[in-house]
Automatic annotation (TrEMBL):
It comes from the Eukaryota. This is CxC1-like cysteine cluster associated with KDZ transposases domain-containing protein.
Amino acid sequence: WNTSVLPSLVHPYMAFCVATNSRHGPVQSTTEAMPCGCRDHSVQLEVICVYLKCLDLIILFVCTCRPAPQQFIQQGLFPCAPVFPKLAIELDMLELAAGLFFVNALPNETAWAATLMEFLNTWGYVFATGVSI
C-alpha cells in the first residue's frame, strides 16, 4: 500500500476532486467497464461497492495500464485490497466513518450526533440550533 498503491492514487484522486467540485458534485460512475484492449491480459473483477445509500455490484477489467485502485478512485470509491479487491467503499462513507471513529471516538449519542452534524455541514446542510425537537 505505502510504496506503490497509495502514491499512484494521488493524481487520480486530485483529478477526481477537480471533476466533482471537491467531491460535492455528481460522480461519473459506470457499473460496467470495458476492457482497454492493451496487450496485457486483463482480468475481470466483480466487486461489491458500499455506498451511503446502497450496495452495488460492479464489474471492472483490470490490467497493468488500468489497475483496480485507480479505476475505483475515478468512481469515488476506495478498494479494500491493493491488487484484486472484492470490496470497495465510497469515499464519503469512509469520511463519515473516520469522523465517527477517530475524531469523535466516544461511544455515545452525543459523539454520533456531533459527527453526523459535522459531516452534513460539510455538504451544506446546516442546522439552525443544536437541539432540533
